């Protein structure tokens, strides 16, 4: 597969990648994850693929046995093959142990999962840490099952192996890092989750296309929960030391809404940037609280870890009916949905890259007229553009970062880039090169 | 009198005690206070009764002469005895000097007090620091008085004696104190005031029934204003050093509403606890400001004293029509009203006792499943109870006390006690044993 | 001219002064400013008049050549004299270079300014820093101009000279300063601007009439923008060191509304005082943000200067239709408008002068009764006046300045002066004589 970096085609390219990844049966371990990461590696060869052996202790957790599956189905009393893994990998409870036996409908029912409230949907069910087997099917299909003798067959393997994850580091001018995390453990579902790794991959391509970056970017493609715990157990010291901002990228594929889930602290630079961007591109975005969390911010923001990780999402996990069912499919996600999320997150990264603490370089207002930046005739109503310029100069006092100035003057930060660069060229503004911990202090001014 | 500690009968027991205390003519000094305190001592022999001599200098004040009264009445021109002290001790202006003489209706009227707006009520009038005499009667009765010769008789005594108060210290594991103050100077009125000493007595009995207490409890039964000034003048240094939280207990007898009056600082631990409890047990409670104060918080919260004293009340003094009249009687106060206040204040003390700063004992979320605290199968909607558990773990970072966590997750602190104890038993939570000054710092997180 | 200090006539006296100053053609330099300042000097001989030579470097600016004008007009093809400077000095673009030549209507039109949206108004147009010439006239008149040969004549001079400003220092008990700035550069307009120097002159007369002042007052009468830049470039170090509060006095002549524009910091003592006064005298006042600025606070509040300068105004520049046209005249401004502004600013100065940090001089409430400050009989409802007294005592803890107490108890500070003085006479309150930097800290309590 060849993906063009032309922005016009980026939404289609993301959707094609999603279509290619969709059929793979992923889990928290196993070949599904490896195949997925290798496809991403075709686009970005710099992605490193790491393996962590089963049994490895990670904080309070242990890497489980690796799970792989080749086939699974049920044969009905009339000989029909149903709940066929090859038709949908959601038909098998994820991490099912192998089984091959006959049983009655009554016995079978203890191993079946369906959703009466969504009779046409196959639910997504997992049992990572307790050995069982099971099948998922639509409630409509389940109701048609007749008493009799059923054969259940799951050709899976659960044995010592490893947990697989991908890692990409894109160097910048400083060692301070922007951390992006997304997960590759969900089987055939589209918004939650394939949209995350797809959009993240294209953000990485954009970052790599830049001539330079202020920050170093660390991007991980991991299984959810156990993957972030594994990654943190290996890297939390350097993460705590280096990560300046970060986003957990999930549920970024549909086009129904935008939403935001804050970090645990709630007002980190990541939160400020996320709110700033969403306010300007989708004013009616939904703001959740940290109590509504459910993805890897549970680990990244846990006590003692405390990374500044926020989530910019479309329809959030757990809030839309299609969530964790076969209805979260390639119809639910759209090229426009993916591309809107890509743009939103790209603006977040632009805000982080361009945010800075500026100092006006003279006392009093500078005489802009003599530099051709101000009209030479005094009339009744100065223009909005001039007012923005005067406001940037007035608030560049070393106590406001550019983000807080953009907030004050109700203008997207990315629309101030040209203006700021012009004022810098005229030596009217200068950047305070203190490191970011100083900028973090500025939160109080927002 | 024998009072059972059975909670089912506690509301009736409080009401019986109120009925027994109601007829006594109390004032800021004199035998009425002593009789009252001795009745409380029957229930709690540990109460110490202290006497402070008349003439003792206390800050800007002086303990006045002691007042005692045996009888008082008016004889009308037709020989009828009215305004009879033995019928209602409100008939005499409290602290009246003795008198025995004849006078005209016109002269008498200068010494009469009634309430045209409440024609059936006898008002409660005092003149502690200026020698006068007077009678209070219903406005209806006053209007029937005919011209003629009246005889007024007050058999009172005003002479050097002492001011009496009761004090009870219930030791705890630390020297830090919870300070409860209530007043015993009002004659026959029920909500303001007899409800205070009655409910306080039963809270003391509950505290004494506990196997142990984190805090030491200091409880005073004093006359209002002069009593708190006397007590402060004797103990303010140790109070300032030891008191961690406190409540002024007044107007806790009726069942019309709940209300809250903050400390002067407004956000002490006492205030936080009072708001937390009332929000959960009576969401429509009335919140007053410190400017609406009128009881002993006037002294406890004065500049340089600054004790963290808040008031959890039913109908606040000064706000209900029956206030400071004969209508604030045993009908206005109910067993249910007393018991609701008892429960509210008991929850306040529980919150103080159980509040603590907790630390989650691992990085990342603990694996609750292997401890039987989490379901082994992943489905779409985790339960509220599980979410509370995860939230307590997520916020136990050493920067939030349990009270602020309870506020965040909108659950009464006392409903988290079992959950916290379970997590402690599994070594997932540990208490930070820093003393309370640390906890006070946490106010900012609320 | 003789002006009486009698307050009853002050509104008329201000209006007379305005009438006298109105016809003078002022600009940022030139004799118009000198004549104006000399008239003010008749009232206050202590005003010093300073000259700053053309070419002087001031921060990023240079004092321009001095501009003077004797005459200007246009002769129409029919020989009619229009746009006559002697009829209205607004007819000439302020700072026009000299011209005397003939041209066609088409050529002339490039030098004409009118307002189609206000067809009867002559606009006010300036070109201080770019050499051009031009005429301003009503749009109605402009539309009547017929094609043909026009003669334009401007008898002006632009040459090295100086910029003129007035300065008045009224000494106080401390070196800390209240800084008042107003501008004298506008030609015949009334609200913006002549009202500023007129009201400021009378505030200065009031200040000089006081037996003593806590603060030193520094008052400047300057041309706008370049004048404040000149003044700051000469005095910013001492201003930064000494100025405790300040007001930029502009647009204080009409009676349509009151408005307020904050300092850049937004919560300085000047801002607190301005809001306090306006809330009490005109509750519906308009509150602008610093982004709406347009006068000399642009310089006084610039980064690195950061003076606490707020603006208490009537109809703000730029917001009313008559602004910067011939309609901002002596009908738009009224004696009542001037006098209301005078009172508002006078209250601001009173608040600054009387604001102080007080300490209650005893523990607990003082016994006011024995001092005759409290009724000797206890009844149901204490008076509002008594409650204010108790509240002032309760909050005089050294952490609240009197202004924050006045805010808390919702009473104008100037109505607490007698009460505070009474409590001081009884030695119940004492002033904390720390200097103002301490008081500034108190902002957080408001």
Characterize this entry briefly.
Chain A has three domains: 7-64 and 162-353, Aminopeptidase, CATH 3.40.630; 67-158, Glucose Oxidase, domain 1, CATH 3.50.30; 356-445.
Which tags fit this structure?
elongated; 446 residues; 31% helix; alpha/beta; 13 helices; 8-stranded mixed β-sheet; homotrimer
Q: Percent helix among the residues of chain A? A: 25-40%
Largest sheet of chain A: 8 strands, mixed
Structural classification of chain A:
alpha/beta
Most extensive interface between two protein chains, with residue counts: A-B, 34 and 27 residues
Q: Class of the largest domain in chain A in CATH?
A: Alpha Beta
What is the radius of gyration of chain A? 25 Å
Per the principal axes of the C-alpha atoms, what is the gross shape of chain A? elongated
Mean pLDDT of chain A: 93
CATH topology of the largest domain in chain A: Aminopeptidase
Got a strand count of chain A? Answer: 19
- CATH architecture call of the largest domain in chain A: 3-Layer(aba) Sandwich
Count of individual helical segments of chain A: 13
Total domains of chain A: 3
Strand content of chain A: 15-25%
Query: Span from first to last CA of chain A?
Result: 45 Å
Quaternary structure of the protein: homotrimer
Structure description:
The first copy, chain A, has 446 residues and is of the alpha/beta class. Chain A has three domains: 7-64 and 162-353, Aminopeptidase (3-Layer(aba) Sandwich); 67-158, Glucose Oxidase, domain 1, CATH 3.50.30.90; 356-445. Chain A contains 13 helices and 19 strands. The first copy, chain A, has helices at residues 10-21, 31-43, 105-109, 139-143, 195-209, 226-242, 269-281, 297-300, 335-354, 384-395, 402-408, 417-425, 436-441; strands at residues 48-53, 57-58, 61-62, 66-75, 81-82, 99-104, 112-113, 135-136, 149-159, 162-170, 177-183, 216-222, 243-248, 259-261, 286-287, 309-313, 357-360, 397-401, 429-432. Chain A is elongated and about 95 Å long. Chain A starts with 9 loop residues before the first helix and ends in a 5-residue tail after the last helix. The B-C interface holds B 58-61, 93, 123, 125-130, 132, 225, 228-229, 232-233, 236, 264, 290-291, 293, 298-299, 301-306, 318, 323-324 and C 359-360, 362-367, 369-370, 376-381, 387, 390-391, 393-398, 408-409.
């Amino acid at each position: 597969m060849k993906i063009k970096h032309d922005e016009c085609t980026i939404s289609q390219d993301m959707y094609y990648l999603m279509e290619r990844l969709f059929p793979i049966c992923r889990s928290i371990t196993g070949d599904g994850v490896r195949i997925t990461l290798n496809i991403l590696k075709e686009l970005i060869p710099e992605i490193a693929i790491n393996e962590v052996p089963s049994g490895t202790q990670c904080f309070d957790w242990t890497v489980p046995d690796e799970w792989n599956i080749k086939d699974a189905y049920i044969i009905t009393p009339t000989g029909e093959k149903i709940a066929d893994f090859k038709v949908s990998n959601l038909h098998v409870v994820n991490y099912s142990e192998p089984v091959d036996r006959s049983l009655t409908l009554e016995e079978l029912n203890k191993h079946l999962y369906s959703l009466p409230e969504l009779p046409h949907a196959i639910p997504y069910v997992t049992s990572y840490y307790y050995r069982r087997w099971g099948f998922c099917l639509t409630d409509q299909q389940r109701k048609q099952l007749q008493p009799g003798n059923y054969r259940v067959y799951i050709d899976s393997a659960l044995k010592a192996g490893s947990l697989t994850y991908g890692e990409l580091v894109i160097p910048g001018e400083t060692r301070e890092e922007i951390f992006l995390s997304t997960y590759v453990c969900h089987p055939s579902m589209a918004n939650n989750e394939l949209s995350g790794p797809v959009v993240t991959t294209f953000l990485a391509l954009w970052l790599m296309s830049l001539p330079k970056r202020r920050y170093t970017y660390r991007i991980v493609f991991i299984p959810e929960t156990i993957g972030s715990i594994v990654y943190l157990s290996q890297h939390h010291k350097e993460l705590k030391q280096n990560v300046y901002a970060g986003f957990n990228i999930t549920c970024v594929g549909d086009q129904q809404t935008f939403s935001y889930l804050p970090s645990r602290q709630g007002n980190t630079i990541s939160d400020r940037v996320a709110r700033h961007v969403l306010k300007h591109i989708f004013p009616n975005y939904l703001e959740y609280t940290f109590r509504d969390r459910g993805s890897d911010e549970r680990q990244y923001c846990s006590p003692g870890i405390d990374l500044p990780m926020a989530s910019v999402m479309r329809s959030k996990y757990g809030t839309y009916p299609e969530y964790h069912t076969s209805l979260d499919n390639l119809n639910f996600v759209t090229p426009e949905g993916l591309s809107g999320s890509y743009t939103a997150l790209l603006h977040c990264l632009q805000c982080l890259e361009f945010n800075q603490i500026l100092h006006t370089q003279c006392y009093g207002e500078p005489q802009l007229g003599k530099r051709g930046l101000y009209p030479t005739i005094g009339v009744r109503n100065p223009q909005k553009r001039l007012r923005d310029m005067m406001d940037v100069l007035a608030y560049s006092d070393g106590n406001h970062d550019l983000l807080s100035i953009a907030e004050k003057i109700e203008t997207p930060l990315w629309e101030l880039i040209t203006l700021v660069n012009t004022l810098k060229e005229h030596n009217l503004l200068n950047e305070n090169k203190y490191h970011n911990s100083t900028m973090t202090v500025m939160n109080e001014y927002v």
